[in-house]
Specification:
About 45% of the residues lie in helices and about 15% in strands. Strand 4, helix 7 and strand 5 form a beta-alpha-beta unit. The strands form 3 sheets. The protein has an 8-stranded parallel β-barrel with strand order 1-2-3-4-5-8-9-12, surrounded by 5 helices. Strands 6-7 form a two-stranded antiparallel sheet. The chain has a two-stranded antiparallel sheet with strand order 10-11. By secondary structure, the chain is of the alpha/beta class. It has helices at about 1-20, 30-35, 35-45, 65-75, 85-90, 90-100, 120-140, 160-170, 180-185, 190-195, 235-245, 260-270, and strands at about 20-25, 50-55, 75-80, 105-110, 145, 155, 160, 175-180, 200-205, 205-210, 225, 250. Helix 10 (about 190-195) runs parallel beside helix 11 (about 235-245).
Length: about 280
């Protein structure tokens, strides 16, 4: 009887760990939210997802309490809140309050302002000042700030890249790896995870259509987002490395117009990696 109970507990733990690790970036369903917020949350619940990351869209026109009630109703938890660069620079206290309101412990910034496709050491140093300053204030409140690169950070600088410079000078913030936006400019996501094993705390899982030509501009056609495991990125290797490192949350992000159809397929693929 005791062995049966132990086995049941282990199975429960395994299921719980899987559910906690695989989440969803809400931006994936931005078009659906515009039409039906409660129905979109219900769809996420139907997929069995319980952890989500905010996508800079606030409370979708609802009051904070109404929005939080919808999350609770659908067994959803915002574990990573978002913050625009300008808010982190000018009003980190509102970022802290919003994150606490959600009960999240991570804040992610998705973009560093720069002119057109020009990104240099000047923008990098500006970002370091803002992220380290805001990151310290968030850290003092028990919140971790992470930055989500978009590919333009991989341009050469000295003997490495601007990305290396940013990581090496990130005193009070960490990073969220978007697998697509590392691979798209020609980088190897697994190599970066191994190069900086303590710097990446979160991850976006996103695959890229085979034959897609990349760039270092942070721009691409969203329709190149395909079902995980069917594109040109070795998602299995990335997931294996991320789990070995103990990354807490891996968020599926699918920006394509077919996200509602593709997300369940991506979930099935990720489940197959557990078998």
């Amino acid at each position: 009887m005791r062995n049966v109970m132990v086995l049941s507990v282990l199975l429960m733990i395994g299921t719980s760990c899987f559910a906690q690790e695989i989440g969803l970036q809400l931006y994936s369903l931005r078009n659906e939210f515009k039409k039906d917020v409660p129905g979109t949350f219900a769809k996420i619940k139907e997929w069995g997802i319980t952890k989500v990351e905010d996508g800079n869209d606030g409370t979708q026109g609802y009051s904070l309490e109404e929005y939080k009630a919808l999350l609770v109703e659908n067994n959803l938890e915002i574990v990573s809140a978002s913050a625009p660069f300008e808010e982190l620079r000018g009003s980190p206290e509102t970022v802290i309050q919003r994150t606490k309101d959600y009960g999240a412990k991570y804040v992610v910034c998705f973009w560093i302002p720069h002119k057109d496709t020009i990104f240099t050491i000047d923008e990098t140093k500006m970002a370091l000042d803002v992220f380290n300053s805001a990151g310290k204030k968030l850290k003092d409140e028990g919140i971790t700030l992470v930055y989500h690169p978009h590919g333009y950070e991989f341009r050469p600088y000295e003997d490495a890249t601007l990305m290396d410079h940013m990581i090496q000078n990130s005193e009070y913030f960490d990073f969220e790896m978007d697998v697509y936006w590392f691979a798209h400019p020609g980088e190897d996501p697994v190599a970066w995870l191994r190069k900086y094993p303590n710097e990446f705390k979160l991850m976006h899982l996103k695959d890229c259509k085979k034959g897609t030509e990349g760039n270092q501009n942070g721009q691409s056609d969203v329709e190149t987002n395909v079902v995980l495991g069917t594109g040109q990125i070795d998602i299995a290797a990335v997931v294996a490395e991320a789990k070995k490192m103990g990354l807490e949350y891996l968020f599926i992000e699918d920006e394509s117009s077919k996200s509602v159809e593709q997300i369940p397929q991506s979930l099935e693929y990720l489940k197959s990696l557990e078998e």
